Amino acid sequence: MFILSVLPEFIIHLIFAIGILGLIAGFVLGFVPLIGKYKLPVQIISILVFSLGLYLEGGLADYKEWELKVKEMEAKVAKAEAESARLNTELQASVADKGKVIKEKGETIIKYVDRYKDRTVLQTVEGPERVRVEEVIKYVENCPVPKELLDIHNNAAKLNKGDKK
Amino acid sequence: MKLLILIPVFLLSGCAVFKTTVPVTQKFPDSVPELMKKCEDLKTVEGTSVPITDMLKVIVENYSLYYQCSNKVDGWQEWYNEQKKIFDSVK
Fold first, then answer.
1. In the prediction, which pLDDT does A33 show?
2. I want to staple A56 with a disulfide (CB 3.0 to 4.6 A). Which of A12, A144, B61, B82 is the partner?
3. Judged by CB atoms within 8 Å, which residues 146-165 of A form the interface with B?
4. Range A108-133 average pLDDT
């Protein structure tokens, strides 16, 4: 209500109080000669002032309750935003860490694959292990992957490319 | 005169009838920068006749790319579920 933001609070209480006093004067103190003479106009005016005062008091109470709700809601929203930011920070760290671990594991496996690229690895292994590694190296050197199989692999790796259906 | 008494009663009932919505809105939650990074394309094997170790390396790299991307999807799911809980808690 616009009037509540402009009118000082004590004015509203004053209007309400004047209304009540007017009602008492008009309806209870009718026997007093001065009031008795103007009994009807006092009654009508006091009912109207009381009505306005009551309306404004009701509006003021509602306005205060509403303001309280706004403050409560603002506090809840601020708490939720802080919680959301905290979650994002945690998630950022968690996703980045997991991604790093996955990448590092992949790199470790690739290093292991590289062992079989040349014969220098044979200088570091002995016994039955050396025989096994030598067999693998021999296989790698003599059996290159044919282009046809590479094409199948490459086509599968590019499944998301090309025309959209 | 008695009808005038009804005016305050009528006005008083107005307080209970007109309810206003609290004008406080929630901001859409920010995303996580790490999750906004696009998934990389899978790698292909270059050459016509390559050693199996080279092909194996590409396959391992592609597995790694898949799991990195899957990690982001899991992150988005967790982000959505948790943000929804937070959003729903403000009522």
1. 75
2. A12
3. 146-147, 150, 153-154, 157-158, 160
4. 86
Q: According to the 3-state scheme, what is the secondary structure of chain B?
A: CHHHHHHHHHHHHHHHHCCCCCCCCCCCCCCCHHHHCCCCCCCCCCCCCECHHHHHHHHHHHHHHHHHHHHHHHHHHHHHHHHHHHHHHCC
Question: For chain B, how many residues are written?
Answer: 91
Residue A23 near residue A47, CB atoms below 8 Å: yes
Complex ipTM, two decimals?
0.77
CB contact under 8 A, A44 and B4: yes
Q: Which residues of B touch A55 (CB under 8 A)?
A: 11-12, 14
Judged by CB atoms closer than 8 Å, whether chains meet at B51 and A144 is answered as yes
